[in-house]
Amino acid sequence: MTDTPPAGGQPAAPTPEPSADPPVAPTAAPEGPPARLWDRMRDDPQYAPEHLALEAVRRLGPEAAQWAARARSEHPDVSSDVLADQAARKFVNLARLSGAVSGAAGLPGAVLDVGVLAWTQARMVLHIAAAYDVDPLHSDRATDLLVLQRVHKVAESARLALGVAAGRERADALFGLGGQRPLGRVMLQLGVRLAQMAGVRAAKRLVAKIVPGAAIVLGTWANSSATKDLAERSRVLYRRRGTAVPEPRRP
Hints:
mainly alpha; globular; disordered N terminus
């Protein structure tokens, strides 16, 4: 028996057989960042990962919490490890698909590819957190995303950068940022920052995504490999966090 494909890109609830490894639901097309987030990242590419992390917790955190609550309600005996593994498989499949269907339209396509990948990875991390009863809506999840995705080495620098990005969001809402900068340079900077967040670190990988043909093969491999590595780091972190004292809710 297979799971019913859920809406919104969420991984399906596990199958009722307690001894079976729950199958992953058929994979839909990966969803990318919302249009307003793309605008924000384009206007402020230096802090693109921080803007993405903040928006991911706001927009995807509730989705992850609802998925975990529904899965546990329908299958009370399911373990956190089983839920986390299923979430990881679901989003690794989505990451692989994003590498196969985008990135063949020059620099804009390459930026789109890494943006969709970074968003898919953020969704996966929040679902894995929820699988281990770690609150995916907590403000510290944005910090976790930046450290797990190796944008920042330590939580302190990630929190500082998130504070700057949040302040720039507020300033942009009031006064507008952006300015008149060459679009090509902005796109390149945005692509590099998002590629760093998504784990596609080598410059040659980003360049290869611009080359038709090579983009599809390399994109598929690089996306799934980076996402698998991120899933393992996330499981290690939240398995440990899930057994610790619950963290207080932050505004």
